[in-house]
Structures are given as C-alpha cells and as structure tokens.
Amino acid sequence: MKRLKPFDRLFMLLAATLTMGMFASSCGDDIYETYETYYIIDNTDEALCNKLWIEDHYVTPEGQAATYQLRFDADGRGQELTSWAIGTGTNTIDRQISWRWTDDSKECIQIIYNDGTAQYLENVWVRDHYLSAEIDGTTFTFVDASHRY
Questions:
Q1: Where in the sequence is the domain holding 143, given as residue range(s)?
Q2: Nearest Cα to 110, choosing from 96, 99, 95, 126?
Q3: Are 16 and 4 in contact (CB under 8 A)?
Q4: Which in 18, 93, 142, 146 has the greatest CB count within 10 A?
Q5: Cα gap 141→138, rounded to integer Å
Q6: Taking the complete model, does pTM exceed 0.90, yes or no?
C-alpha cells in the first residue's frame, strides 16, 4: 500500500471537511432573519378631500344594487349620492353631509346628515386612489373617480 505524503493528507482532510460542511449546511431547517421596513401611512385630509369616491358594488339597506358616491370637502362638508336602477330609470338620493374624524387616529369618519342622524365609516384607509371603509359591518372599497377605468 502506498503511503500518503503530508500534503496529500492535508488535501484529503480539507476535501472531507468541505464535503461534510456542504452536507451539514443543506440539512435541517435554516432560519433566515429578514428585516423589512414598515411604513406607517396615516390618513390625511389632503388624501381624503376634494375627490369623488365611487363604490360600484354597494347594496342599499333595501337590497338594491347601487352606486354609492362620497365627496369630502376640507371645510367639513360634503355630499353623499346613492343611485340604483329602477325599471327603465334611475332612483337617486342626493344628500349634503357634514363630516369629521372621530379622533386623532383618523381611522373613523362620522357622517352627519341634515336631519341630525349619523353614520360611521370605520377602519378607514385612504391610499393614493382608493378609500377603504367598513359601513355597518361591511367593507367597501371606493375608487377616486379621476382614476377609474
């Protein structure tokens, strides 16, 4: 049997170590830590106001498929427009509103009608061209009319 020289032994040891290292690193559950940057974007009056927000998949409390539109002005006034097909025509309810954020978190809007009644838009998220809100337990996504199809 031929004897290995010291250099050959070192090479064999290095090769075995690398081979075992590759097998060991490919087995088991590797845990990778990732760090993501989360941007907290607050709702603002600038993002909400002076736009016509349209929800085409609205259903009235009476069960009619309708289009629901909201406009919020920076002075706390606005407009609510609901329209749906009836026979060969369209039925429309157009109401002037007052509105306000319910607190500094700006995640809930109180809409106040001229007769003193109110409605709440909860879990409000205003993003570029979308407004998401929960009304009476149902979530709606409004689109800025200037960015509609």
A1: 45-147
A2: 99
A3: no
A4: 142
A5: 10
A6: no
Q: What is the CATH classification number for the domain harbouring 86?
A: 2.40.128.20
Phi/psi of residue 68, each to 5°?
A: -120, 125
Residue 76 lies in a domain: yes
Q: Could you tell me if residue 24 is inside a domain? A: no
35 inside domain: no
Q: Is residue 16 part of a domain?
A: no
The total number of structural domains in the chain stands at 1
Tell me the pLDDT tens digit for each residue of 28-80. 555 555 556 666 679 999 999 999 999 999 988 888 899 999 999 999 999 99
DSSP codes joined into one string, the chain: -PPPPHHHHHHHHHHHHHHHHHHHHHSS--------PPPP----HHHHSSSEEEEEEEE-TTS-EEEEEEEE-TTSEEEEEEEEEETTEEEEEEEEEEEEESSTT---EEEEETTS-EEEEEEEEEETTEEEEEETTEEEEEEEGGG--
8 Å CB contact between 145 and 54: yes
